[in-house]
Amino acid sequence: MTEPYDLITMGRIGVDIYPLQTGVPLAQVETFGKFLGGSATNVAVAAARLGRRSAVISRTGSDPFGDYVHQALRDFGVDDRWVTSVDAYPTPVTFCEIFPPDDFPLYFYRRPKAPDLVIRPEELDRDALAAARIFWITGTGLCEEPSRSATLAALEARAKAGPTVFDLDWRPMFWGGEGGASGDGGATGAAAMATARPYYEAALRHATVAVGNVDEAEVATGLRDPKACAHALLERGVELAVVKQGPKGVLAVHRDGRTAEVPPTPVEVVNGLGAGDAFGGALCHGLLAGWELEPMMRYANAAGAIVASRLACSSAMPTAGEVDAFLAGR
Q1: pLDDT in tens, 258-302
Q2: If you write DSSP's letter for every residue of 224-287 in order, what string do you get?
């Protein structure tokens, strides 16, 4: 490697099979589109679309969907050298239902085990992790071994050498809970959160930035008030806490006392599932550029809003020109 990556992400990868019809239950959908998916992957794509050199650490099955993932990464300009195959498990697929403006149930097909949970500590390129300008991990990577040990080993190798982002990324079903992409996990939510919290706290000790919505912040802190969550995340080791509040906008609090609270950017929502990943890629873009908190949050909100107004996730990620034009029109 001759120069460090702007961003290395580590975590989920797979194929999104999304309906091409909205407002229709999955059982009645007749046509689907195929897209690159997985939150850590989408963040890398989002950053690449903004002109950043990015790579993903993950694994696929040895199957045609795995071949598709590699081709899609290359088409988006994301380095796939650390995306390797696992013979034992299929590449995951994810279906969704689309009921705008705020109901997008997800259906994960990741059994008996997703290949991205078979990342092993000995496979890590520790030099590249330490050299990257930003390193990004997710809560899902902590849910099972060997991915859990690999994620914590990657954080230790990183040693806070630069911005190290923990996407709190709460998926209750991966921890024995119920529910969809967030939420309290139904009747088993408290137990699932209790199982996850020690691993979240371990990761926070190695991170410099934490980002997530209020549900996700609750997993890490046990609190639900956004400001209390932000300060609790700072107490657990990060320098910057970003708490997304849905219709109330986003709150960012830095250890040095700087804060920014930015309202949401209104759009006509088509599919809200990729908005958080677009926000993440734009957040990395702003961190790399050295922006102040408020313009960085406004830019990330705008990127998320653009994707929410489109059908797909990865292929919907905006370019810098699109975000600039969107903000200029507000």
Answers
A1: 999 999 989 999 999 999 999 999 999 999 999 999 999 999 999
A2: -SHHHHHHHHHHTT-SEEEEE-GGG-EEEEETTS-EEEE-------S-GGGHHHHHHHHHHHHH
